[in-house]
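Weekly structure sync - notes
Attendees: PM, LS, DV (DV joined late)
Agenda: review two folding runs queued last week.

Item 1: First target. Sequence and structure tokens pasted below for the record.
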Amino acid sequence: MDITFNTDHGIFNYRVCAMILSDNKILAMHDDRSPYFYLPGGRVAVGETAEEAVIREVQEELHISARIQRPLWLNQAFFQEDVSGQSYHELCIYFLMDISGTDLLARGERFVCQEGSRTHAYEWLPFDRLKEEYFYPLFLKKEIYRLPDVFTIRTERE
């Protein structure tokens, strides 16, 4: 069971995101439900650690066995989702991932993966292009240039 629930004031989510970087590019994705780019990852399940969740999500979405380099941020996000219009209070842990030993870079600049019945389109976005892209989370458009050396708690209100 995923750690997400509805309240009278919006939806609470506990998520993880995989930061997969190569040559000043970040791997971003979108699907038929989301017109914007976002990072691979998903909800943490009850009884699952954040580390287990990010490894599982990367396996499910990208079909690779990536390793965690280090956690970067715990982002406390308060936002209204663009498609559904619903209000969210989300805790998301961002992990820098190591993809050495995988075929991910050989798949090209753009590729598609299936996760069950869902199709995810992936693209390696240059850091400099993030500021002009329809991309979430917004804070990464600037913070991608200065990843923290230590795990950092931050807050984002959109």
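Item 2: Second target, run right after the first with the same settings.
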Amino acid sequence: MRKIALMVAVLGALVLLAGCKVSGNPLPEGMEEETVLEQGREVVAMLNAGEWQEVYDLLRSDARETSSPETIQSYMEERLEKAKAYVKETEAMATGQKLKATGEEYGTAVIYCKHEKKSIMYRVAYSVDMELMGIEAKVQ
């Protein structure tokens, strides 16, 4: 059951983040790049500190329905096992996206981080109201 919940959470995050391109699209009107990046960096720091409940608490209500602190923990521990401890941020950008299903616009902080063994690309998605919509961590 836990594995199914994790898969649902990961698939939910991927659906939310589908189509995010590193080349970047403009952020939705009213969103500021520095704010999106600053908030994204805070989430990345929480993920690397093992603050699963805190990240879960930041998720907007629809994202909380398909996730839990335990699914976030399991998702991140799998990636951090491969990449090991966080070393430093190497690159960051903010990009705008649109959910295909609803047309909702959102902004994504794309943050590349060096870890001891491998790098991870973090995608942290926010609604135009700066509510956390989803996260993705992709080991490079």
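Discussion on item 2: Residues 79 and 139 are 6 Å apart (CA to CA).
Action: LS to circulate a short write-up before next sync.
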